[in-house]
Every structure is written in structure tokens, then in C-alpha cells.
Write a structure and sequence with these properties.
The structure is a single chain. This protein is α/β, with parallel strands linked by helices and 331 residues long. The chain is built from nine helices and 17 strands. The protein folds into two domains: 184 residues, Rossmann fold (3-Layer(aba) Sandwich), CATH 3.40.50.620; 118 residues, 3-Layer(aba) Sandwich (Rossmann fold), CATH 3.40.50. The strands form four sheets. Strands 7-11-6-1-4-5-12 form a seven-stranded parallel sheet, with helices on both faces. A five-stranded parallel sheet has the order 14-13-15-16-17. A three-stranded antiparallel sheet has the order 8-9-10. Helix 3 packs across helix 4 and helix 5 packs parallel to helix 9. The longest helix is centred in the first third of the chain and has 17 residues. The chain binds flavin-adenine dinucleotide (FAD).
């Protein structure tokens, strides 16, 4: 790994704020830079008026690269591939990290293909052995872990699973210098142009980044009963998730779905309500730090992965939990 001295971290922002996964990637990047004797560079992209939040300049990275272009605001993955690839080719970082978010999942493979380099996706741990970078990720729907080792092509591209790595704290005494570059994005080569971004009405916390998720399955019995989950989520500051049949039935939107064909989540606390624990559901949530399951069937497979289990009718238990949490958490 001595063939490059820079670790780059693509920091995602939303409305001028660093997304939590951006802070996590920054921390992972700084740690890696220390282990490899390299420098950490935060990379941000945006329109001509884009600025760098203090959480990035004060994060302890050695430098910040801000890539600007009118086609990068709003986010345009094809434009970003062009802009990012050009910077990587001219500056040659050894490693590029980004969050395994919707944007990261779109950007990283396109970038890897354009640069002809390897990509490790959805990593949950990074390790350095001698000069070799190793990355671990779950495979076979979370039943096993695989460790990747990169070949000789640089940079090593990695996406990091949200909520797994510790977030960076703004600790640096001095702000890192910001270098601003204007990207060259060929107008005729840009096959995708974003005309408008419409925010979903009443949009709640994104389940991929939520620290607490209250998730409902078919045991909730009808869509109206999800009100009980919304109430508990409100008290806990949580996001509401769902199993696939709930989504297939149209009770919740697809962005709520947890599992193999939905989102992969790793919150601090996952409360599974009336969810059986099918392997496809577990694939999306079994890396949660603490799992609480509520199910009327004591033999439901969800109890095999749960840290705490409650056997009973979820419709009776949820209002009691909400009332108790309200008492404990109210100021
Ligand atoms: C290719 C493929 C991909 C898939 N991808 C996903 C995926 O991404 N995510 C996903 O979730 N599933 C996925 N599935 C579906 C998965 O196999 C299961 O069918 C699904 O997870 C079951 O959802 P459930 O637990 O909500 O429903 P059920 O299996 O119907 O379980 C309902 C549970 O609720 C309990 N219950 C019922 N009433 C109550 C009550 N009053 N109080 C307490 N408990 C109660 C029951 O005991 C039961 O355990 C996929 C399947 C396939 C084949």
C-alpha cells in the first residue's frame, strides 16, 4: 500500500449538512490513514455555490477537496462519475471510501468500471495487515462474512455500511484547507440530467441511517395498526420499518422495507413487531446491535436472533411500551 499516500473519503451532504454516514466514512478514513501512514482527504461535490460544512473542515482530515459544477447540484451520479474519475486519475489516491447509500451504491460501481479497479461493497470492517488493506462484508444474506484483499490496481474502492463505523467528532484545532476545483463535465456526454427533486410529503427518518428502528410485520394485522408503531417511533426518535409482505400489500412504502430485497440496516436498536424472522428479513437487520422481538409464537425464528424477546399480542404490548418509554424519556 505504499503506492499512494492519500485516503479519500467522499462525504455526502444533504441541505448543506453532512449526512451521518459521511461522518462515519470520515472516521474510517482517518483511522485508515493513520494505520497506513497516509493523509486523509475529504471530497465533497456540489454546484457552484457549494460550501464545506465545519463538521468536515474540523474533522481532523488533512485536506478537503470541493468539486463544483452546475450539473452536480442536484446530485447527478453520471456527472459525479466524470468529475470524480478525472480527479482520481490526476491525483492518484490509494483508497477511496464512501457510504453504501443509494448514491454510494450508484456511484461506486460506475467509478470502479470507469477506472478499471476493484470494489468492495457494503463493508462492515476494515483492517490493515502490513501494507495490505482488507475489508470484511456479509455474504449469503448475512449467513457468512467474506474478507476481501485488493490486488495491485489503485485506488481501492470501498463502500461502508451505514451505522456500523463510529462517526467522526469535530476535534481538530485547525480547520483543514479547502481546495476548490471546477469539474469538466462534457455537456454532450451527460446522458442524465436532473430537472427537479421532489421531497416526499411528510418524509420521516431514513431507515438506513436511523439509530432506532421499530419495524412491523404481518402480525400487525392491518395497515391502521401501524399507527401504534408510529407512536412508539415518535417517542423513541425512531424510524418505522416493515417486512416485505407488508410492503407488497401496500400497507407501507417500499423505502420502509427491511431485508434481502429491501434495505440493509444496522441500528443500535431494532424492535421487530409481529415479524416471523424469515431468513430474507434477517439478511437486512441481523447486524443490528440490539434486537427486541415481539411475537405471539414462542417458536418464531426471530427469537433465535433476538437479544430480548416478548411473547404476546403485539397490539396489546405496543401501547404499554409507548406509555412506559414516554414516562422514562420525558424531561
Ligand atoms: C427472494 C425473496 C426475497 C425476499 N425478500 C424479503 C425482504 O427483503 N424482506 C422481508 O421481510 N421478507 C422478504 N421475503 C419474504 C420472507 O420470506 C417472508 O415471507 C417475510 O419476511 C414474512 O414477513 P412477516 O414476518 O411479516 O410475515 P409472516 O411470515 O406472516 O409472520 C407474521 C408473524 O407475526 C406473528 N403474529 C401474528 N399475529 C400476531 C400478534 N397479534 N402479535 C404478535 N405476533 C403476531 C406470527 O406468529 C408470525 O411470526 C423474501 C422472500 C423471497 C422468496
Amino acid at each position: 500500500m505504499n503506492d499512494g499516500k492519500q485516503i479519500w473519503v467522499w462525504v455526502e451532504t444533504l441541505a448543506g449538512q453532512v449526512k451521518p454516514v459521511g461522518l462515519e466514512a470520515l472516521h474510517a478514513g482517518k483511522t485508515l490513514a493513520e494505520q497506513l501512514g497516509a493523509t486523509a482527504t475529504a471530497v465533497l461535490a456540489g454546484g457552484p455555490d457549494a460550501t464545506v460544512p465545519e463538521a468536515v473542515t474540523g474533522s481532523g482530515v488533512q485536506q478537503v477537496l470541493l468539486i463544483q459544477h452546475p450539473h452536480l447540484d442536484p446530485h447527478n451520479s453520471l456527472g459525479l462519475v466524470e468529475a470524480f474519475a478525472a480527479q482520481i486519475q490526476s491525483r492518484q489516491p490509494a483508497v477511496v471510501l464512501m457510504g453504501a447509500t443509494n448514491h454510494g451504491k450508484e456511484l461506486a460501481p460506475a467509478l470502479a468500471a470507469k477506472l478499471g479497479v476493484g470494489l468492495a461493497t457494503d463493508c462492515i470492517a476494515l483492517d490493515v495487515e502490513g501494507d495490505t488493506l482488507k475489508a470484511r462484508r456479509p455474504v449469503y444474506a448475512g449467513k457468512a462474512h467474506i474478507t476481501f484483499q485488493f490486488g495491485e490496481h489503485r485506488p481501492c474502492l470501498l463502500t461502508l455500511r451505514p451505522n456500523v463505523f463510529r462517526p467522526s467528532q469535530a476535534t481538530a484545532a485547525e480547520a483543514a484547507p479547502v481546495e476548490t476545483v471546477t469539474a469538466e463535465i462534457p455537456e454532450d456526454g451527460l446522458r442524465l440530467k436532473i430537472k427537479d427533486v421532489v421531497q416526499a410529503a411528510g418524509r420521516k427518518l431514513d431507515i438506513s441511517e436511523a439509530r432506532i428502528i421499530v419495524s412491523g410485520g404481518m402480525g400487525m394485522q392491518k395497515p391502521e395498526n401501524f399507527r401504534l408503531l408510529e407512536e412508539l417511533a415518535e417517542v423513541l426518535g425512531a424510524a418505522v420499518g416493515a417486512s416485505r409482505p407488508v410492503v407488497d400489500n401496500g400497507w407501507r412504502e417500499y423505502s420502509n422495507q427491511v431485508g434481502q430485497t429491501g434495505r440493509t440496516v444496522s441500528p443500535d436498536l431494532y424492535i421487530a413487531c409481529g415479524i416471523s424472522g424469515a431468513v430474507q428479513h434477517l439478511a437486512g437487520m441481523s447486524s443490528s446491535r440490539c434486537i427486541v422481538a415481539i411475537n405471539k409464537d414462542p417458536n418464531a425464528p426471530i427469537f433465535d436472533v433476538a437479544d430480548y424477546g416478548i411473547v404476546g399480542n403485539v397490539l396489546d404490548i405496543l401501547p404499554v411500551m409507548t406509555a412506559e418509554f414516554k414516562k422514562v424519556l420525558s424531561p
